[in-house]
Amino acid sequence: MAIGNVGVAARIEKGPSTANLLKTFLSRHFYLCMSLVLAALVIVGFSRTVNSSLFHANPPRPLLLWIHGAVFSTWIAFFIAQSALVRVPKVSIHRSLGWFGAGLAAVMVVLGFRIAVVMTRFDTVVLQQKGIDSFLSIPFGDMIIFGSCMAMAIYWRKKPEYHRRLVFIASCQLMDAAIG
C-alpha cells in the first residue's frame, strides 16, 4: 500500500504548479508587466484631478503644465513600447528607438525642474498658497534620481541586466506625483 502512494505522489509533483507558471511568466515578462502597471498608476492617480486641475481649472494652469503632461505621458508609452519590443523580440528596433528615449529623458529632466519652479510660483502667487516652496526639494530630488538612473542606463546600454533595471528604477521614480 505504501509503495502505491509513493508512485502517485511522484506523478503529482512532476506536473507544473501554478506558482512555477507564474514565476516563469513574470521572469520573462516582468518589465512589460511593470510598464503596464506604471501606466495604470498614472491613469488611476491622475483620473481624479486632471479634469478639475488641468482641463477645467479655474484659474487656468500654465501652458507648460500641458506640455509636461504630454511629455511625461509619452515617456510611459515609450517605456511600454520598448519593453514590448524586447519581448517580441525586436531588439534592433529597441536599440534604434533608444536614442529617442535618451533625448526624451533629457527633455524630461529639464522640463521637470522647470515645471517644479513654475508651478511653485503659480501656487504661491496665483492661488495664494503658503509654504509651497518648502516642497520644491521633492520634484528636484525626483529629477536628480531619474536623470542619474537614465544616464547610467545609457552608459550601460550594452549590459542588459543593468540597463533594464536602471530604466525601470528611473520610471518608478516618476510615480510619486501619480500616487500622491
Question: What does it look like?
Answer:
The protein is mainly alpha-helical and 180 residues long. The chain has one domain. 81% of the residues lie in helices and 0% in strands. It has 8 helices and no strands. Helix 5 packs antiparallel against helix 6. The model has no long low-confidence stretch (mean pLDDT 88).
Write the layout of secondary structure elements.
Layout: H1 2-14, H2 18-47, H3 50-55, H4 63-87, H5 91-125, H6 137-155, H7 160-173, H8 176-179
Helix pairs in contact: 2-4, 2-7, 4-5, 5-6, 6-7
- Helix/strand-derived category reads mainly alpha
Biggest sheet overview:
none
Please count the beta strands (DSSP E, at least 2 residues each): 0
Task: Please report the distance between the alpha carbons of the first and last residues.
Answer: 62 Å
Q: Whole-number average pLDDT?
A: 88
Number of domains: 1
Low-confidence stretches: none
3D shape: globular
In terms of DSSP E residues, the strand content is under 5%
Supply database-style keywords.
globular; mainly alpha; 180 residues
